[in-house]
Amino acid sequence: MTDLAFMTIAEASRLIRGRKLSPVELTAALLARIAALDGIYHAYIAVTAETALAQAKAAEAEIAAGAWRGPLHGVPYALKDIFDVAGMATTCHSKLRMNHRAAADATVVTRLREAGAVLLGKLALHEFATGGPTRELPWPAALNPWNLDLHPGGSSSGSAVAVATGLAPGALGTDTGGSVRNPATCCGIVGMKPTYGLVSRAGVFPLSFSLDHVGPLTRTVEDNAILLSAIAGHNPADRSSAARPLADCMENLHAGVKGLRIGVIAHFYTEDLIGSPEQVAAITAAADVLRRLGAEVRPVRLSPLARWTDCGRTIHFAEAYAVHERDLQQRPEDYAEATRRKLLPGAFIPASDYVKAQQLRAALCREFAEAMKAFDAVITLSSLDLPCRLDDLDTVAKTYERQCRMPFNVTGTPAISVPTGFTAAGLPLAMQIVGRAFAEPMVYRIAQAYCDATRFGERRPPVMRPAEASLV
Amino acid sequence: MADTAKTDSPDAESLRRLAAARGLGRVHTLFPDTVAAAFARGSQAMSTLPPTFPPLTEPATTFDPVAFDPTAFTVPE
Q1: CA of A302, closest CA in chain B: separation in Å?
Q2: Which of residues 402-431 of A touch B (CB under 8 A)?
Q3: Active site residue A373
Q4: Domain ranges of chain B
Q5: Is residue A155 among the annotated active site residues?
Q6: How close A315 gets to chain B, by Cα (Å)?
Q7: Which of A22, A179, A208, A210 does the annotation list as catalytic?
Q8: Contacts of A439 (CB under 8 A, 6+ apart)
Q9: Are A413 and A435 in contact (CB under 8 A)?
Q10: Is the pLDDT of residue A112 over 70?
């Protein structure tokens, strides 16, 4: 049996269903690991140990009685602290929300509760899913498990750190301009931003309503598909929820890529901006792997990266400011400086720019859909740079300008970050695989074939000690 | 938005008045540099529209009144 800390959701599920693994044993092992190690990584804001053990015991009893609910029954998970859980604070990692209490569960929490999953706790993030890692906040920033001095990516930083360090087998995050994929990239795990509207955002604190997505972070592609399958689906009470079910992501997961047409959007990182040589070399090698596996891999050209990011950022700024306007006017000192810097530009976006950005978005979505007629999926980089020092907030902010993730928040199409190797210094590298709207099964299929062939996601970060980092 | 700052940035007093007009007087008093940086960033025009982009004919968003009242356009028998 695999070490419980790094057991996949799929393996845990099989063992739990076969009554060869107790959900209580698995949950208790993870809670003990959190107690032992989270003082180093700061992935968790709140650990729900009692509730978790109660849920695990209930799951065990149900399964013993023959009432297995599905692949997440008795399987632990954790939540970015931006999802409502009835009776708990949804802090958004902010002083402004310390006294909040959620009246009801977010839709995804309800779905996971109904699936029998076990909530371990709530995870660190950049303040309101937009600020940055800073000591100004009531809880410490999560640390990169591959090097504690470096940024773990954000904003779903705790989600990625918990999964990468074996403090949760899977977690949920949110992604407005890359906030699931960026930490997945920096921490060497798998992070999926599904199609806009596929997962209900009811009960999730908003950042930018037309760009926000909920997505899973896991150590394997299969686990990611399992978690997404549990949370996807129409919610009539959420007007942004798509009235369309998720197609079966497991049926063709292992079908391989032979004969598939995969485009490479290389100009994003070789012309529009210049990516780090190690990131570029890794995605070039990844394209060769896909070719060797039988895919037809060729370049595709879209509008320049800046056009996509201009469009997305303008919408993001305007909509996020609308969410936070009153608090910024009345209690600006309660936000961290990094968060004020991210939110206040929205006060000065001309209304005409917001309208033009929405117009441009429609044109870009058509452009992408037209380009995708010739492809089953496309690949491009996730981050252009390697993680920088956590305490260098100016450079951290610049990494959010140098990424290829925002285009797919603009299109609303599914995009997954998968590991493509490691730098000479041992830091994870990654690429995105992007599909057509609602083509999650194809994205997962390609990701699975690539990860099976390369196995980069199987490397685990070393267990760090605080003395090994200058920032702890 | 372009990476270059707009050249016609307002002077400090103009920026203070602008911030106050948006209800941001308090934040400007406490964090004037942050507000100045936010103005520079937010007011940068979108600079990379495609040359063939038709902003006058491209609808921004679809507004569908029926979405709010599905019975509105019910055709009588």
Answers
A1: 11
A2: none
A3: no
A4: 1-44
A5: yes
A6: 11
A7: A179
A8: A195, A247, A376, A377, A413, A414
A9: yes
A10: yes
